[in-house]
Amino acid sequence: MNKPKIVILGAGFGGITTAVKLQKKLSRNDAHITLVNKHDYHYQTTWLHENAAGTLHHDRTRIPVKDIVDTNKIDFVQDTVVEIKPDEKKVVLKNGELDYDYLVVGLGFEAATFGIPGIMENAFTINSINSARLIKQHIEYNFAMYNNEKEKRPERLNIIIGGGGFTGIEFAGEIANRVPELCKEYDIDPKDVRMIVLEGAPTILPGFDPQLIEYAMNSLEARGVEFKTGALLKECRVDGITYEKDEKQEDIPALTTIWAAGVRANSLIETSGLEHNRGKVPVQPDLRAPSHPDVFVVGDCALIMNEETGRPYPPTAQIAMQEAETIAHNLSALVHGKENLESFEFINRGSVASLGDSDAIGVIFGDKKIFGWTASFMKKMIDNRALFKIGGLGLVLKKGKFNIF
Ligand code: FAD
User: Fold this and answer.
1) Are residues 205 and 251 located together in one domain of the fold?
2) Which Gene3D superfamilies did the record assign (predicted)?
3) CATH number for the domain including 9?
4) At what angle do helices 129-146 and 166-185 cross, to 10 degrees?
5) Structural domain tally of the chain?
6) Which of 37, 104, 195, 380 could pair with 8 as two cysteines, CB 3.0-4.6 Å apart?
7) Residue 250 and residue 124 share a domain
């Protein structure tokens, strides 16, 4: 038999971990493996809010694929996936086509705007290195402009964060730390700046421990962040937003709105013909697509139910990396002619949300609540562990976070 062709789409947390694990399990003689990604670098999606706020340089976040993947064992193709054709076992790229025996889809997420007028056109989203860089530049430009116009425009200094979930709160923590620096750089009174988190639910970080939520709100409020909970964003314009709270609508002028209130799987899933449920593939226990057993799906494109809660697991880097290990194991088994594939089991190692560089909240080891310095230290260890998993000690030493104190 010819060597099977394995194609991995996306070099995010799911795709790159699959590739790294596979290169240890299979040799060039076993299979022909190709990794496809839009850019020639992988990025730590979980750090993008820091790049967006300008508290971490984007070069710390991106890692050249060739520094992680052994190109003697895996072919890397830098290209954009345009279409997945599972019935023909083909993937259409912007600059060509690939056929496969086994496919791994790890194309990540896109912003979900829920049809709110103006979000798509006027709000910024934190979903790639380039989108994060744009936010950083845009905020800085508005601070720079503020003292350079005859008539002051307060909306230049108003930053709206749509969504008080993990991404919105983590961004709020970073921007709250960056604003005093920007004010100093551009001779602005910090009292003129507003950072406003809008959250539709009655509380920020819905589902998180109430004591930790209170801690997070106090920490951010002390640094100037305002919260409007039970407040729904109704419209986003280029120069402001409208939100609704207690059946009353209010406008806030703002030139910067960050939309962090929802993500959906890459829309290529919906157009692919793979069976999907609200845009994600409801994978089988072995992480194969139910409609196409030669297709594995990893990360934010996969839907896996948490039997305990009856709800899908939220999309996280943690679950994406664990899924990738199962997929690599199962692909290796298939290539070696084994039929018994491993079932995926999620091991919840907890979750920690940063509130800026030296503060955080989290729950680890099942139910241990942590906050402040301990949580911030833990968050950095989690970030370093993710680096270790994809690139070993060398990558941790190069890109790791060691500013513990
Ligand atoms: P990604 O890591 O997003 O990778 C997708 C890859 O596919 C990217 O490299 C992209 O360039 C590539 N791609 C996309 N479309 C195409 C195309 N058409 N052609 C070619 N390539 C393409 N999770 C946690 O566990 N803990 C956290 O603390 C945490 N914090 C977060 C903070 C922020 C600001 C954000 C945005 C997310 C955070 N997450 C966190 C969620 C986590 O980052 C995602 O769940 C995770 O990245 C999903 O991995 P993935 O492999 O599915 O997608």
Assistant:
1) yes
2) 3.50.50.100
3) 3.50.50.100
4) 40
5) 3
6) 104
7) yes
Distance, CA of 41 to CA of 54 (rounded, Å): 20
User: Which numbered atom of ligand 1 lies nearest the CA of 352?
Assistant: 28
ipTM for this prediction: 0.98
Q: Atom 18 of ligand 1 has which residue's CA nearest to it?
A: 81
Residue type, 203: T
Annotation says 275 is catalytic: no
Half-sphere exposure of 5 (CA within 13 A, CB side): 11
Could you say which of 88, 97, 170, 199 is catalytic? 170
Q: Cα of 128 to ligand 1 centre, how many Å?
A: 8
CATH of the domain at 126: 3.50.50.60
Nearest CA to ligand 1 atom 14: 107
Residues 6+ apart with CB under 8 A from 153: 145, 146, 255
Same domain? For 221 and 286 the reply is no
